[in-house]
Design a protein that fits this description.
Blueprint (H helix, E strand, L loop, with lengths): L1 H4 L23 H12 L27 E4 L4 E3 L8 E6 L6 E9 L6 E9 L13 E5 L7 E2 L4 E5 L4 E8 L6 E3 L2 E6 L6 E2 L1 E6 L4 E2 L6 E8 L4 E9 L4 E9 L5 E7 L10 E9 L4 E8 L15 E2 L10 E8 L10
Length: 336
């Protein structure tokens, strides 16, 4: 009751002064008042005849029954203690034809030790060093963010013979554990008009001084052709304080399209624009983030340390993820 009344739940971190989002989770005040009144009355049960039908869920999957499930070839043993660097596992799709994917859901085999998963598409002939970004972004998991389900007419392309690379972040929890994670894919059933693309405005060259309560880091991405921006997802770690996306147009105009004044690592949300944003060639996405490395940050593991880019939670990242489509792309001729 209290969390709903103070608008902590459901979680939504975007400043309402900027942007309009299709997945806005905020409740209208009338609904908040109804929930609070119901809780104050002792949460009475309503009439059974007025209850809606119980929702039906596919066991283990939020996207519904996948058309195909791909699983890590072998179990990975997570030690009881220590730091586990990111691990990379390659899974063959065995697709004999190109596939358009409308929904993607990665599922941790052992949620107790899987911090997150990011999946990349490795097309035939592409080589992977196994040390980081390994191709085209497919999807992933993040606290509080639902699986990728693309808008109608939009899908991710997985070419015949491609492989999926699982980037796994494991966190030991005091017991030796095993994990074998999976990804479920749903293929597009309707004609695909646009390929879902993923972009980043990121900056890995920073050093946050010890004790600094508001260290600023900037990044940019410039559109080389006309595009439409579909969604935004800021990413930092536990010292992340706030994050802002600003678009600068070729004529010099600028507008803030997302402002997250109180970033929360425990709720890594994506923000899907209610109306896709047209960016002509030469437009720029500027991201500005601030980090709190002071003792006042209760999530700060050590305010006496200088902090640089790194995979682990006690290190930092500054990534302005976004998804988009290319204006010049012609609709796909077939769906499979």
């Amino acid at each position: 009751r209290d969390k709903v009344a103070e608008r902590s739940m459901p979680p939504w971190l975007a400043d309402p002064q900027y942007g309009h989002f299709a997945n806005d989770r905020r409740l209208p005040q009338a609904e908040i008042d109804t929930i609070v009144a119901w809780a104050n009355a002792g949460a009475p049960k309503g009439e059974a005849r007025d209850a809606p039908p119980a929702p039906k869920f596919v066991e283990g999957w939020n996207i519904g029954k996948p058309d195909v499930v791909l699983t890590m070839p072998d179990e990975f043993t997570v030690p009881a203690e220590g730091v586990v660097p990111y691990k990379y596992f390659t899974v063959a799709t065995n697709f004999t034809e190109d596939k358009w994917v409308s929904a993607v859901e990665f599922r941790a085999g052992n949620r107790a030790v899987v911090h997150h998963i990011i999946g990349f598409i490795q097309e035939p002939g592409a080589k992977s060093s196994g040390e980081g970004g390994t191709g085209n972004f497919l999807g992933g998991t993040a606290p509080g963010d639902p699986p990728n389900e693309y808008p109608k007419g939009m899908a991710k392309l997985i070419r015949a013979g491609s492989k999926i690379v699982f980037q796994m972040h494991y966190t030991p929890n005091g017991e030796v554990s095993r994990d074998r994670s999976s990804v479920g894919l749903i293929f597009a059933k309707e004609p695909v008009q646009k390929t879902a693309m993923t972009g980043t405005a990121m900056n890995a060259r920073f050093a946050i001084p010890p004790g600094d309560p508001g260290y600023e880091v900037k990044s940019s991405w410039t559109a080389k052709e006309g595009v439409h921006v579909v969604s935004l997802m800021p990413h930092m770690h536990v010292r992340g304080r706030d994050f802002t996306y600003t678009v600068v147009y070729p004529d010099g105009r600028s507008e803030i399209i997302l402002k997250v004044p109180r970033y929360d690592f425990n709720w890594q949300l994506s923000y899907r624009l209610k109306e896709q944003l047209a960016l002509p060639a030469g437009s720029r996405i500027d991201c500005v983030a601030h980090f709190d490395n002071s003792p006042a940050n209760k999530f700060n593991p050590d305010p006496t340390k200088e902090v640089r880019w790194g995979d682990q939670t006690w290190e930092e990242m500054m990534i302005g993820w976004f998804s988009y489509t290319r204006d010049a792309e012609q609709p796909a001729k077939a769906v499979s």
